[in-house]
């Protein structure tokens, strides 16, 4: 089965192994023909980025082929019966009463119908308007790509069909043809084929450059993400080495994108780690209130006797807080900063007091003491504690919202 082959220095090879122009030399000729020979005087159409006399594809002009009109009451049909596609395929292959010859660079001719070609492509329509007629037959030339690719392109204009092996082999030619001749439906197909199955580390750099020439921003983005994701391997390919010499500005842009993505990745990791710490602090606050109010494991509630039968504790931080409290009650130093464990529980108690809304009835030790201490702190210290409280509350709210969203898919509407 034929596969997609790319020559990194020229973007791709044709079916015979001959190099196609760099990157694609698409030249369209509208001439009068005598037999199969073209007059040397001809007009050329190239990619807009390479030719100043080729404007963007024009809108459908009002020509002798008729103006495209759609009834307001007409409804779009997204599912075309296969019999209709068979009909258009048959019309293309049999070329019944054709009035157009599409010539390729290697001298082959593709018989087709100017009305079909002109309706599907506004650029081809403009060419048909300028082409001279001999014996009722118009002639246009599409050079720069293999005749097989042109054949697939013209067939797609009829029935929107193609063979998968042909698409795999000529997808880059077809992408260029769809862009030059303004056939968005074919461009979407080519982009989808490249994104889903035809991109590889060996050809992604070449396809990225072609995507930019053919105004395919989504494909360009997919290629960029692939390069960033497998940067080390892709920089060893021939395509990357050629791109460095031919397009150093693109290399610089990709390197900057890599640095930016790495910075974002580090920032995301830092935020996740911070949120993890804030969430642990929130769990510690819950466990502290639970132990002082209800009692748990070996510590009874404040001013009450520990019950003999305790339910299974649902607070993940309860065991750690219990150990800190037992240490705090027995430690001889008992001064903030004198003992690391005492300092930790001291800070947790102060954080609780700032989050507590009912210090008069609170069972947590020193809650009222820290409330009074707040009044004598500097603005800087006050702002620091307020920021910590907001982060702790925000982490719990974020976690709760994520949990709720995960439940929704299982609900039946």
UniProtKB/TrEMBL annotation:
It comes from the Eukaryota. GO terms for biological process: regulation of DNA-templated transcription; response to hormone; response to hydrogen peroxide; response to salicylic acid. Pathway: Protein modification; protein ubiquitination. This is BTB domain-containing protein. InterPro entries: BT1/2/3/4/5, BTB/POZ_dom, SKP1/BTB/POZ_sf, TAZ_dom_sf, Znf_TAZ. GO terms for molecular function: calmodulin binding; zinc ion binding. Pfam families: BTB, zf-TAZ. Signal peptide: none annotated. Residues 98-166 form the BTB domain. Residues 272-370 form the TAZ-type domain. CDD domains: BACK (cd14733). Keywords: Metal-binding, Ubl conjugation pathway, Zinc, Zinc-finger.
